[in-house]
Design brief:
The protein is mainly alpha-helical. Helix content is about 50%, strand content about 5%. The protein has 26 helices and six strands. The chain has helices at about 1-10, 15-20, 30-45, 55-70, 75-80, 90-100, 100-115, 130-145, 150-160, 170-175, 185-195, 215-225, 300-305, 315-325, 345-360, 365-370, 405-415, 430-435, 445-450, 465-475, 475-480, 480-490, 495-505, 510-525, 530-540, 545; strands spanning about 230-235, 235-240, 265, 280, 400, 545-549. A two-stranded antiparallel ribbon has the order 1-2. Strands 3-4 form a two-stranded antiparallel sheet. Strand 1 and strand 2 (about 235-240) form a beta hairpin. The relative contact order is 0.12.
Length: about 550
């Protein structure tokens, strides 16, 4: 593909072929040092002074929430804080990446990046694939924990064939299709562009994009690879996917797409503003038209091109998106708008990380380790006196972010020792008396809706009166849960008990002032359960608990 190779060279992007056929990853520690060198040079040039290194408690809580999606237990926090090992931070990162919670967290992250805020459903708005979407997240979790490379994972998504029972990742096509869950070539093209290539192709759906060099031929050329994806709506699930007439052995009746264009091409819908009815050949983004035999399935062809080590877009898009997950903004920002007119703030850094990711075999854990070992990731989020307004954007200070709904829910359940935590405002005994309707979703569903965050900006605090009233007033949070019952069984000294509650929620020991104030409150209260429940209620309602600092 000469054109792709020219683009690759022009953008100075890394590829195994350019680095040598025997290129090997530098290693996480060496890569972290190089990342810091690039960032420090940029900070010096900009006359910015980076903030200090985060203390152990701040780093501990941040690493747990980012890598495993929950706060540490009091025991885990104590072990780390009391450790005198010089390399305890690196060891903690290895420990967290080795836990199943790592895959579960990144599975949830990718589930949320794929799934729309409002899940598709039938014409009445019901029968939404809630459980199927959760199952897709669990599938991603299994793949991350199994150590599959990102290229392998994406290939399995794009070439999924069968029912959701056997291929949970096949829901991807329904989630990015239309509002009734029908997979559409246009929806698949749009989402593959943003998620896997870092390209905003959507403006070329109806006409050539006047602000970018993408044309309708680019958009529908990519859509052509998904033209034969078929589907079948079945109760609360969307049975996908298949290659329509090219599918083999699924034994499932499905609705084939209606398009008389030759295989390997697609007809632009008549509803498009421009080009309606025109037949467009399949083509790779910014590449040449596809030349496929009529008996070939199309999605594997795309997957081969997309996940190739010398693809100039695939690895770079993942690296940029992963960096943004940890720093709340990408090296290219917005993260899905990677084009010449929107250059990276740190081009050499992006090149370095992309090269390391490719040569590691698209190893996601390795990339996460490279990032979290850096001084940049381990800086404090506390502003300094000379803190420049743009210091966070220059990666000289860690931003303060809002916990995702999943991480918040899991951290609350852990702090209260209540795996079945339910803070829905519904009392079955009183419902009929006051004409109260029953909740639509499960305890998790309703919590996730209430505490949903801004997917595009983790620093945006979107909570308001409904969220804060739920935290302040719900009896499940006021009574301390099993956590306080377990604490009372040990008959602890008040100061030790207060310290344990701080460790289990804020992942740190209380200051002298905090300890004295909380202990005085406990001693004045004759009811031990009420006293410690009050302390725990105070801690989970602090902004420090719900934020990633």
């Amino acid at each position: 593909m000469p054109k792709l190779f020219a683009i690759l060279v022009a953008l100075s992007l890394p590829a195994v072929a350019l680095a040598g056929e025997n290129a090997k990853p530098r290693g996480a520690t060496e890569t972290a040092k190089r990342i810091d060198a690039e960032l420090d040079a940029h900070l010096t040039k900009s006359k910015f002074v980076a903030t200090a290194k985060a203390d152990d408690a701040e780093f501990l809580r941040r690493a747990y929430l980012d890598i495993t999606g929950r706060v540490p237990t009091a025991k885990q926090a104590t072990a780390f804080l009391d450790s005198t090992e010089a390399d305890k931070r690196a060891k903690l990162i290895d420990e967290l990446l080795a836990s199943d919670n790592y895959g579960e967290q990144f599975g949830r992250v990718w589930r949320d990046w794929i799934a729309p805020a409002e899940l598709p459903g039938d014409v009445t708005g019901g029968n939404q694939p809630v459980q199927a979407t959760l199952n897709m997240g669990k599938w991603f979790a299994q793949r991350f924990n199994a150590g599959d490379g990102w290229d392998v994972i994406v290939r399995k998504v794009l070439t999924a064939d069968g029912t959701l029972k056997d291929q949970p990742q096949g829901l991807f096509f329904s989630l990015v299709g239309n509002d009734t869950g029908n997979p559409t070539p246009a929806g698949a093209a749009r989402t593959v562009g943003t998620l896997f290539l870092g390209m905003q192709l959507q403006c070329a759906e109806c006409h050539n994009d006047p602000f970018k060099h993408y044309t309708q031929a680019d958009y529908y050329g990519l859509a052509a690879f998904f033209r034969n994806v078929s589907w079948k709506f079945n109760g609360r699930y969307f049975d996908a996917v298949g290659e329509g007439e090219l599918a083999a052995g699924t034994g499932k009746a499905a609705t084939p797409p209606k398009d008389n264009a030759p295989v390997g091409s697609i007809t632009i819908p008549k509803g498009a503003l421009k080009g309606g009815g025109k037949i467009v050949p399949g083509k790779f983004p910014e590449g040449d038209p596809l030349k496929a035999a009529s008996d070939q399935a199309l999605r594997p062809i795309l997957a081969n091109w997309l996940t190739a080590p010398d693809n100039p877009f695939f690895a770079r898009a993942f690296v940029n998106r992963t960096w943004a997950y940890f720093f709340a903004r990408g090296i290219v920002h917005p993260i899905d708008d990677m084009r010449d007119e929107n250059p990276p703030t740190h081009p050499e850094l992006l090149k370095l990380l992309t090269e390391e990711f490719v040569t590691s075999g698209f190893d996601v854990k390795h990339l996460v380790k490279c990032i979290t070992l850096t001084n940049a990731y381990q800086r404090t989020s506390r502003p300094a006196k000379t803190d420049a307004p743009k210091l966070v954007a220059a990666f000289g200070r860690m931003p303060v972010r809002v916990m995702s709904a999943d991480a918040f829910y899991d951290s609350l359940r852990l702090a209260l020792a209540d795996p079945n935590l339910d803070i829905r405002n519904y009392d079955p005994k009183e419902a009929q008396r006051f004409g109260e309707s029953s909740p639509v979703g499960t305890a998790y569903d309703e919590f996730a809706k209430l505490f949903a965050t801004n997917e595009d900006d983790a620093t945006d605090f979107t909570y308001g009166i409904p969220q804060l009233l739920a935290l302040l007033n719900h009896p499940k949070l006021r009574t301390g849960g099993k956590a306080v019952d377990d604490l009372l069984k040990t008959k602890p000294e008040p100061k030790a008990a207060v310290t344990a509650l701080y460790l289990s929620t804020l992942s740190r020991r209380p200051t002298t002032e905090e300890l004295d104030e909380a202990t005085a409150f406990v001693l004045k209260c004759k009811d031990g359960k009420k006293a410690y429940s009050g302390v725990l209620w105070m801690l989970v309602n602090r902004s420090e608990f719900m934020l990633v600092r």
